[in-house]
TrEMBL record:
Protein's name according to its UniProt entry: Terpenoid synthase
Region (Disordered): 1-29
Pfam families cross-referenced by the UniProt entry: Terpene_syn_C_2 (PF19086)
Listed InterPro entries: Isoprenoid_synthase_dom_sf
Domain of life, per lineage: Eukaryota
SUPFAM superfamilies membership: Terpenoid synthases
Length: 395
């Protein structure tokens, strides 16, 4: 089934929104608070989907959070961005019959993140294990909470949500569905595996990508676009080379999304640090003193303090450096795509000389190009959304 029609977004466009008031609605003009500074284009299918996206979001919020809870308030706020719906942008190329499921999966993970970061580490591990059992009940022994062990109030709702969406995914395509659910189980198990602190950005980025559930997002994107790509077990040299390039493309696009989020979210997240009473300075020479005031929670991940620590620079310099790094990653992604197109041409020549059926190769090439464009859309959507959302800025 084809995707919904989509359109390009102009990132500097002024928006006019209507806010309710006690007397009469007030129309307010808003501009992006911080410029969208990367070159990846942003698309959205939101206008073409009717109420599909909003209904999927509302259903997931209702199932996975309690009325009045912090997680539910955060979920509702997440979708008050006047510049566009995150999922309508990120999954603008998804097929119509799979978009709703993709939206529900991502909203579930966002709510889960808000819930789990409030729990003690050991409890978060236990509850992730419970959810994994729901995804794959035949491969796990029944897990029970011990006497006196706490359980979050929304866990039962999340379990019911996963039972329902598991049935939906398997009904669409059992083989693809089992692969997708197995990868969701994998990402849930990896969520709490990161160190409490990082000494260098090179050490931090792989964990940040995992923390973002990026590799599950990649697979979900492929599933939602109904795309088949080369298997990592392929024995041909040309296919293995292409697989490696695909992995690099996924990694770099994930770095753009994760580090872009770090850049825009830092002003909010730094208030979740615990500040000591020592005096600070904005100068680079006092960066160690400045950083020592910030005691990072083991549940918050951001590249700004990593760069401060790694290079002994101030918070301001670290944020400037992070912006430059994100731009460099976009340039790497654009160069990598050019290289992949060259590799596709080489694979085409090899296939032609080996009498490989042309239709198979054409399908592979078309699917790969769509997937790369889809990854660019997801990364661009997340960075743009972070640059505009009320979660990080008050309009």
């Amino acid at each position: 089934m084809a995707p919904f029609p989509s359109e390009l977004i102009e990132p500097t466009k002024t928006h006019h929104i209507t806010k309710p008031s006690s007397s009469k609605p007030v129309t307010t003009t808003v501009n992006p608070q911080t410029p969208y500074f990367i070159s990846l284009p942003i698309r959205t299918c939101e206008k073409s989907t009717g109420s599909l996206i909003s209904d999927a979001i509302s259903s997931t919020i209702s199932s996975c959070s309690l009325p009045g809870s912090r997680a539910q308030r955060a979920a509702i706020q997440r979708h008050t961005n006047p510049f566009g719906n995150l999922y309508g942008m990120a999954f603008s190329l998804s097929e119509q019959d799979r978009l709703e499921v993709a939206v529900k999966f991502i909203e579930f993970l966002c709510i889960l993140d808000d819930v789990m970061e409030e729990l003690p580490y050991e409890q978060a591990i236990r509850e992730h294990e419970i959810l994994c059992q729901v995804l794959n009940p035949t491969s796990h022994e029944s897990f029970m909470f011990g006497v006196g062990e706490p359980e979050s109030e929304c866990l039962e709702g999340m379990k019911r949500f996963l039972i329902d969406i598991r049935e939906t995914v398997l009904s669409l395509n059992p083989e693809q569905g089992h692969i997708l659910l197995a990868d969701l189980e994998r990402t849930l198990r990896q969520r709490e595996c990161a160190p409490a602190s990082f000494g260098a950005l090179e050490e931090y980025v792989p964990y940040r990508i995992v923390n973002l559930d990026w590799y599950f997002v990649c697979l979900l994107l492929r599933w939602s676009m109904n795309i088949s790509l080369p298997s990592p077990s392929s024995s041909s040299t040309s296919s293995s080379s292409l697989d490696s390039l695909i992995n690099d493309f996924e990694y770099i696009s994930g770095a753009i999304a994760g580090l872009g989020n770090d850049y825009y979210s830092w002003n909010r997240e730094k208030h979740q640090f615990q500040f000591q009473s020592t005096e600070s300075s904005d100068s680079d020479s006092d960066s160690d003193s400045e950083l020592s005031e910030m005691q990072l929670s083991d549940r918050i991940m951001n590249a700004v303090p990593v760069l401060m620590r790694q290079h002994s620079i101030s918070e301001v310099r670290a944020k400037e450096s992070l912006k430059e790094i994100v731009v460099q990653q976009v340039e790497r992604l654009e160069e990598l795509r050019k290289g992949m197109e060259v590799e596709l041409e080489r694979s085409s020549a090899i296939a032609t000389s080996s009498s490989v059926i042309g239709g198979d190769l054409d399908e592979l090439e078309e699917g790969l190009k769509r997937y790369l464009t889809g990854l660019e859309c997801v990364a661009a959507a997340y960075v743009y959304w972070c640059s505009t959302c009320p979660r990080y800025y008050v309009f």
